[in-house]
Specification:
This protein has helices at residues 10-19, 72-82, 97-108, 120-123, 126-134, 182-194, 230-242, and strands at 49-53, 87-91, 113-117, 141-142, 152-156, 159-163, 199-203, 247-250, 256-261, 264-269, 283-290, 293-300, 309-315, 323-325. By secondary structure, it is of the alpha/beta class. A 7-stranded mixed beta sheet has the order 3-2-1-11-12-13-14, with helices on one face.
Length: 334
Amino acid sequence: MGVRIRNLQIVVILAALMLIGGLRVSTSAAPPAEPASAPPAQKANSDGFSFAVTADMREYSGPGICDSSLYFRGACEAIADLGDTAFMVGPGDIDPPQGVYWTITQTLGITYTWYPLPGNHETETLEDMAWLNAFDYGSVNPGPTGCPTTTYSFDYQNVHFVMLNEYCDVLSDTATTGDVPDHLYDWLETDLMSTTQEHILVFGHEPAFPQPDADNGRLRHVGDSLDQYPANRDRFWDLLKQEGVAAYICGHTHNYSAVKIDGMWQLDAGHARGIGDPGAKSTFIVIHVNGSHITFRTYRDNHDGGPYTVTDVGLLTEGIPAYLPLVLRAYPAP
């Protein structure tokens, strides 16, 4: 499968930006000591809703030396400054998850909702998996045997969200090295075919097609992401296309990219560890759903812990040219 890149019109950027509304700042409070969460209130809103995506902040969160705007806290503070995101999704490498949750609640408030997923580093750590299995995800549809807690799906307004633990097989939630084997695929197929929501977004830790960083071209984890098992990867990708999924959103590489592959979007959220990874800019994505339109804004720092600014905007649904970078560029085919 090749990457299909379209030429883009700068005028469309302005239209995309107009679709993303202004936001209000939430307050913070001391977090609980134990895992706790609650589903976000689903309020009717003519302007739709927004949510944030942060990944791979591993080892740069929580109290102590990493409780600094130079690390994950800085990304959370920037999200708080934007205002009323309904919740945050964390597609893996969040070790230790209790530290990430502590930072989120310190900056975005004790009632702010987080939907985490395990990455490869959590599955290597018994304490991390125990915490994730004890976490209160609210009202969600449970995953298959082996990972009924760490794979799940839920609806929010007109969107169906699917959270895949890509390390799950029949007997365990730490059984694979990153794959969509028959057991997980069958659950996903049933889940996708059952939803009646207007939009579907699927999240997992590993990219199906590892891409270079959009800023500096750094490339990591080629051959040890979902592409390690190409037959399963291709079957997975075909299912997402068949069921009309708007995007597959992941992490793992620490590199930010947004590409359309054989007609399907893949967004890699990069890393949100601030200066903890000097090889690529720290990143978070805010996705906004407004009726039939799903848009995204990508925020990156200046590579030394400085302020996060918008670097890319785009539309994940049909009707506007596929990719709207602020700086026009093309990605090489994988």
